[in-house]
C-alpha cells in the first residue's frame, strides 16, 4: 500500500513539472532527450527498475552508468546516475529529471557526461 502511494506521489510531482516549452539550453540532458523515444534511451543505458502509469503518461525510474572514473584531482571514484523519465503514450520522453548525480571526470555532473556528452 505504501509503495502505491509513493509511486502515485512520484507521478503527481512529475506531471506537475511537465511543460510544453522547449527544454532550456542550460539543461543539456533535457535538450538531448526530451522528444526522443524512451526505447532509444533504455537501449543505450539499460532498462528502468520501476514504472508507474497515470492517464496517458508513464513515469519510469532508471539508474545506470555504473563506472569507476578518474577525477580531475587524480583520485578515482565509483559513480552512477539516477533519473525519472516521464513518457507519453506514444513512448516519447516528455521530461527527464536527474534524481541522483555525482561529480564527473570533467565537471560537476556525471549524469551530464553520460547522458548528454559534449560533441566534438
Brief sketch in words of this structure:
This protein has about 120 residues and is α+β, with helices and mostly antiparallel strands. The protein has 4 helices and 4 strands; from the N terminus they run αααββββα.
Structural summary, described in words:
Helices cover 29% and strands 33% of the residues. The protein is an alpha+beta fold and 120 residues long. A 4-stranded antiparallel beta sheet has the order 1-2-3-4. The chain has one domain. A hairpin with a 5-residue loop joins strand 2 (57-70) and strand 3. It contains 4 helices and 4 strands.
Total helices: the number is: 4
State the total count of DSSP E strands: 4
Strand order of the largest sheet: 1-2-3-4
What share of residues are in beta strands? 25-35%
> Helix share of residues?
25-40%
Structural class: alpha+beta
Average predicted confidence as pLDDT:
84
Organism: Endobacterium cereale
Protein name: Lipoprotein
Keywords: Signal
Signal peptide: 1-21
Strands, helices and their partners?
Layout: H1 2-16, H2 28-33, H3 38-45, E1 50-54, E2 57-70, E3 76-88, E4 93-100, H4 110-115
Features:
elongated, 120 residues, alpha+beta, signal, 4 strands, Lipoprotein
